[in-house]
Design goal:
359 residues; 5-stranded mixed β-sheet; 2 domains; AlkZ-like; 12 helices; Arc Repressor Mutant, subunit A
């Protein structure tokens, strides 16, 4: 049982997410360590997949690097709203072959077995297609509980078949996904692992990405990976990546990072609150009058502490990065304020836009 201070736990978490001063060199290195890059079109500043990479790599990151890694080099692949390293695919395939597990999904797939075969046959005959180019011949419609899906069942079937490893996204045209047979998208010389071994290795990769996580957390799902740990002041049962322990006592350089609200670093909100004492609430879906920090405020990480939130927007009409507020959770020291402003300048340079203060 490892006994960790909160400082050590924070350092482990920050380094695991590549948010210390030792910046990674490229897109694939980031994806390999983080395990996934969330895809989200909410481009208040820039889409999540791009701000996630900028916050790690810095100004030298260009969007074309991600596209090349996914579509040309095939070192990353798109799955379930994320880009993931292809090295994870062999570990995911056993679970994908068992999908769906829930009764409603199984019943819908069974009722639409003919529809599924028609979708696969059309892709096989015609090659890559967008969902809109495939006829909807579903026998049974599945309603959208959250309003995310329209009545057309083709996108849902394509996503279902992708979860089974039958079809895959081969590229994007703008924000539109282009689908093909998985056998023509994924490498065919992947190693094969027994189901239990693949599941164990996948848990280890998740823990590697987070450094430290609550045992049996539904957010992080590391299970019994790594080694047990206690964190001072916490009653939780923790698992820690043994390789991360080597640098637990090393100070984290105080660089600043603006994190997209869908960044994997803050996806496990309970963990962030427990270790960092930072309770983040995304106000995107709140009425404007109830927002304290802004529609899509980006948490500001300085070293191993969350110190504020950035409320900024790319104003496409005026062609500026409009900074409405830098919310300080505790008053910044002059040096800290300068560090935040320097990172803001770098963000603006990366976007190729001047900064405008306020509305």
């Amino acid at each position: 049982m490892h006994e960790l201070t909160r400082d050590q736990a924070r350092r482990i978490a920050v380094r695991a997410q590549l948010l210390d001063a030792d910046r990674p060199g490229d897109v694939v290195e980031v994806a390999e360590q983080l395990g996934y890059l969330k895809i989200d079109p909410t481009a208040v500043i820039a889409p999540c997949e791009h701000t996630t990479l900028f916050s790690r790599i810095g100004w030298s990151y260009e969007a074309g690097q991600l596209k090349k890694a996914v579509e040309d080099d095939r070192l990353l692949f798109e799955f379930d709203g994320t880009f993931r390293p292809t090295s994870l695919l062999p570990l995911m395939l056993p679970e994908m072959r068992q999908w769906p597990r829930h009764e409603k999904s199984r019943a819908w797939m069974d009722a639409n077995a003919s529809f599924a075969r028609e979708v696969v046959a059309r892709l096989r005959a015609e090659g890559p297609l967008r969902a809109e180019q495939i006829p909807d011949t579903a026998a049974v419609e599945r309603e959208s509980a959250d309003g995310w899906y329209g009545p057309n069942q083709v996108p849902r079937m394509l996503e279902a078949l992708s979860r089974q490893g039958v079809v895959a996204v081969t590229r994007r045209e703008g924000r539109m996904r282009v689908w093909d047979l998985a056998e023509r998208v994924f490498p065919q010389d992947l190693p094969a692992y027994p189901d239990e071994e693949a599941a164990r290795m996948l848990r280890e990769r998740r823990l590697q990405a987070h450094g430290i996580a609550k045992e049996n957390s539904p957010w992080t799902r590391v299970g019994d990976a790594g080694e047990p740990a206690r964190v001072e002041g916490s009653k939780w049962k923790w698992r820690v990546d043994p390789e991360a322990l080597a640098h637990a006592d090393d100070e984290v350089d105080g660089r600043v990072a603006f994190l997209n609200p869908y960044d994997g670093m803050i996806a496990d909100r309970p963990r962030i609150k427990e270790v960092f004492g930072f309770e983040y609430v995304l106000e995107q879906f709140k009425p404007k009058a109830q927002r304290l920090y802004g529609y899509f405020a980006h948490p500001i990480l300085m070293g191993d502490r969350f110190v504020g939130l950035l409320d900024a927007t790319v104003d496409k009409k005026q062609e500026v990065l409009r900074v409405d507020a830098i919310h300080e959770l505790l008053p910044f020291e002059p040096e800290e304020y300068e560090m935040v402003r320097a990172e803001l300048d770098e963000l603006a340079e990366w976007l190729g836009l001047p900064i405008a203060e306020g509305r």
